[in-house]
Specification:
By secondary structure, the chain is an all-alpha fold. It is 66% helix and 0% strand. α1 packs parallel to α5 and α8 runs antiparallel to α9. The longest helix has 26 residues.
Length: 222
Amino acid sequence: MTVDLPWIGAVAVAYIVGSIPFGLLVARARGIDIRQHGSKNIGATNVGRVLGKRWGQLVFALDALKGAAPVVGLGWWLGYLGAPEAGAGRAGQWLAVAIAAVLGHIFPVWLRFKGGKGVATGFGAMAGLWPVVTIPAFGALLAWLVTLRATRYVSVSSCVAAAALPVLVAVTRPGAPWPYLALTGGVAALVVFKHRANLARVRAGTEPKVGRVGGSGGAQQG
């Protein structure tokens, strides 16, 4: 992989954009410090539980956008967007931009590196990797919706969707450079790791369920 200043700058920009704490900002605009309520997480699920469904949906959209925007914009600028046959080196550079956006959300510099769990931002970043990961990302979103309807656990649904992502990449893009599988597998592992406490509560029977798909019931994740 060739390390150059434009690529390093792209990674830095992606991290900064990803670290914008939209959940915190939206809640503050409503007069609430979201870190002091519910699960104390800045993610969309906790915002929806505390402030209502439409605010949670807004935060999800903004968090997804901050994942997609640097990936699409910087991918276009660096010439990676729409280039499925790019070699492993170029793919690795672009994927580093995507993972930087996700890490920005999970470990935001503005909040002493205490952020959300990366689901919405990860979805946006993966969907922005056109065309190799875009369709698998929406397939993972479908898996999330189906699992949520079946279990009513947001945390379980997020882990299932994350695990489905690398599988879908392998199935839909069997000739894709190996960094795509490595990154999506790494994102899946990170999402599951961030939800380990939720999964423990599921096993113990103490994890809250949402009242309905899209509802604002109190799942402890975001």
